[in-house]
Amino acid sequence: HVTIKSICCIGAGYVGGPTCAVIAHKNPHIKVTIVDLNAARIAAWNSDELPIYEPGLDEVVKSTRGKNLFFSTDVDAGILEADLIFVSVNTPTKIKGIGAGFAADLGYVESATRKIAEVAKSDKIVVEKSTVPCRTAQSMRYIVSTPNLFLTHLGSFSTNTDALPTRGSQLEANAKPDIHFDILSNPEFLAEGTAISDLFYPDRVLIGSLDTERGRSAAASLADVYAGWVARDQIITMNLWSSELSKLAANALLAQRISSINALSAICEATGADIDEVSYACGLDTRIGPKFLKASVGFGGSCFQKDILNLVYLSESLHLPEVATYWKQVVEMNEYQKRRFTNRVISCLFNTLTGKKIAVFGFAFKKDTGDTRESPAITLVNYFREEKAYISIYDPKVEESQVWMDLAEPGVVDETEVIKKQVSIAADPYEAAAGADAIVICTEWNDFRETVLDYERIYASMKKPAFIFDGRLILDAKKVSEIGFKVETIGRPRTTFVQSKDFE
Ligand code: NAD
Ligand code: UDX
Hints:
The protein is an alpha/beta fold and 504 residues long. The chain contains 18 helices and 14 strands. It folds into 2 domains: 6-230, Rossmann fold; 243-504, Rossmann fold (3-Layer(aba) Sandwich). Uridine-5'-diphosphate-xylopyranose (UDX) is lined by residues 188-192, 251, 254, 258, 292-294, 296, 299-301, 303-304, 365-366. Nicotinamide-adenine-dinucleotide is lined by residues 10-16, 35-38, 41, 75, 88-91, 108, 111-112, 130-131, 188, 190, 192, 302-303. NAD(+) binds at residues 11-16, 36, 41, 89-93, 130-131, 192, 303-306, 373.
């Protein structure tokens, strides 16, 4: 099989950037070029202020950039030079057209694939790094074989394999007869906030290929790249469709655990059980295990919801409505959890938020990242706005401009000034909490623990009774309530002022 000397990664985002930086770091003999159409993003990758915050990333990038790691907007040059190309572009949920709200928008994958087909002058191994619906590799293979073909519904129709050429059919013949493209699936399992350690010490690396000599040979070439630092027995090869589906399946199973524990948190609140104790007890069963059983205000992030909706769409397309309903419930439970927590805040604050100040601690979807995609904090702030509260947000890593973008209605211009009448951004947690009626912890940043923050100082600055709603179970409720706070924790029974209305 071919020994890879030059890699191009299309898409310099949360996945392409860290993944290919680590590949370069661990394989000094391979030239890695990460390309993107977004010039500002590439400029940031080439500067001292990287475009994403990820512990350990700065060190990896700084040790390799300019040596065998390059960031560029010249997509064509990147493709021309590479033996192997990662397609690591975004695959958001479609907002319009067939499958809107569920199916993945594969427009970016399609245009990157077309670009490869158009520009390449030598054989290429093309690797799906983006998370895609099952059988997308087949569509990609079709595109590189017939670059002038116009596929409008790549995502929606990716399961309709009848519409696509089968192996050996005439259409599969390359549009550029002397050039061969091999398509591999290599889904990424890193989680944000721990991306570098996930990449350094992966549980497994998954490579899907066609079960043909060429397919197996391409998979072996990619396996060699990972073997630069990953043990061979952790590099798993399998068929393309299993590999694609495994990515959606892994995310669905992880998110399902969170929705399951969050469903149980509602029972805890109503009965006097404590969700942390229930998680602990269940997690000790080695068949269940302790991870991903932390109750929360809801899961966020760019992957879980998108990938489950994708699985729901796939199930529906395959005429499996019961399967679709099963997975959809994971997302519905997550929405319910955010609504339920908001209702608890309103109810404890004497059934009205009008004119009250709420300090929101944390806007990122989890700690150790500045990423806010699908962050539960966005939903909560929007609920608080509807209740006419004033909201002051503090997050250690989220840019102010990002908050305004997240809170704006899509398509509405100049809305920021309207939002600013109700929402402000604080420079630190003390400023956010000053004069507030309640603190709502949305992100589990260590900075918010009672061992780090001076909650006595915060208490003194707040209106009384001063409430803390811990949506992440990070506070020692006993210690904080000794200061005087009314502490309400997700998955634990309510401690304050139960109104008769609650029993109706
Ligand atoms: P992202 O939005 O951060 O980055 C994607 C980048 O691709 C953008 O910078 C965009 O400008 C660029 N791009 C789009 N089309 C392009 C084109 N034709 N040519 C050149 N550049 C192009 O997205 P991300 O979070 O890195 O996710 C990428 C993929 O990886 C998605 O499919 C996602 O589901 C998957 N994934 C994400 C994570 C995660 O934690 N974020 C984890 C595993 C898998
Ligand atoms: C996830 C997958 O973990 C990763 O393998 C995949 O490649 C991309 O999607 P990510 O979204 O970055 O990673 O973070 P993750 O740690 O999975 O957290 C997702 C959300 O679930 C966060 O909002 C987090 O706070 C929440 N969560 C996680 C819980 O509420 N409880 C838990 O026990 C774990």
